[in-house]
Every structure is written in C-alpha cells, then in structure tokens.
Design a protein that fits this description.
- The two termini are 21 Å apart.
- The protein has one helix at residues 5-8; strands at residues 14-15, 19-26, 30-42, 45-50, 59-64, 69-82, 85-92, 119-120, 123-124, 129-130.
- With 138 residues, the protein is mostly beta strands.
- It has one domain (5-120): Thrombin, subunit H.
- It is globular, with a radius of gyration of 15 Å.
Length: 138
C-alpha cells in the first residue's frame, strides 16, 4: 500500500514568502551566505529557493532578518529548478512555529485564521494559504 507523502505530514504547509538568510557549504566545501525567500512554510521548516548547490542531509543555518531568529535545519528534499535556483526543503531540528513572522506565532499554524501580512524586506507576501485540505496527523 502506497501512502501519499502529504498524508504523512504532521504539520500542514502554507504558501508564504518570507525573506531569509541561509548559510552553508556548497560543493567543494566552499562556504556560502545567500539571501533568499520561502516558497512555503510550516512549523518544521520551509521550502526555499537556493542558487548555491546543496546535498540531501546537509546542515544549513537559516536566519529570519525581520526577527533575527536563527534555526538549524537539514536539507530533506531537492525539488524543481527555477532558472538559477532550485527548490530546497529544509527541515528544522525542532518544530519552531515562532520562527515565522505571523501573528500568534506560538499557536499551531493549522489553527490560525484571519492572518494578514504585508511585505517583508521588499518581497511581496500574501495571506498564507493552506497547501493541503487534509488535517495534520496527531
């Protein structure tokens, strides 16, 4: 029996753009620091667009320049390429809903309503929208 990945997800994802700084090492052990943005977020991490090459399992440091919050994460999936950037799923070492600049950040993302946002460091943002209609797994 095949279980759809979305059905196994413990925290729902939201399409939400947040400017982020990412530090890591690219191929050849060259350190990098890159300003980027999230494509989607949840309490356990984000899908971001990176121009630096990374590997599955690689550890990255992510900083939200709006709040100065930092979190360690690991590359859990590599996705589609968009020009010079590739989609990179980063999973935090611990759930951290407070990392995201959303009102009532300590409230679980799937329980929030009436979330409004403006622009973050020049990147347009929109009201977060749930990417799956399935309830989270308890």
């Amino acid at each position: 029996m095949r279980i759809d990945r979305a059905e196994r997800r413990h925290f729902p994802r939201f399409a939400f753009n947040v400017t982020l700084m990412v530090w890591g090492e690219s191929a050849g052990n060259r350190r990098f620091k890159e300003e980027t943005f999230s494509l989607s977020i949840n309490a356990k991490g984000a899908l971001v667009a990176l121009s630096n090459p990374v590997k599955l399992g690689q550890t990255l440091l992510i900083m939200n320049p709006e709040t100065w919050e930092e979190r360690w994460g690991r590359v859990s999936r590599l996705g589609k390429r968009h020009g010079q950037r590739i989609e990179v799923a980063i999973e935090f070492t611990q759930p951290a809903p407070e990392f995201w600049p959303i009102p009532s950040a300590r409230q679980p993302l799937y329980l929030r309503s009436n979330i409004h946002s403006g622009t973050h460091s020049g990147w347009p943002t929109a009201e977060p929208r749930l990417l799956s209609n399935k309830p989270p797994i308890s």
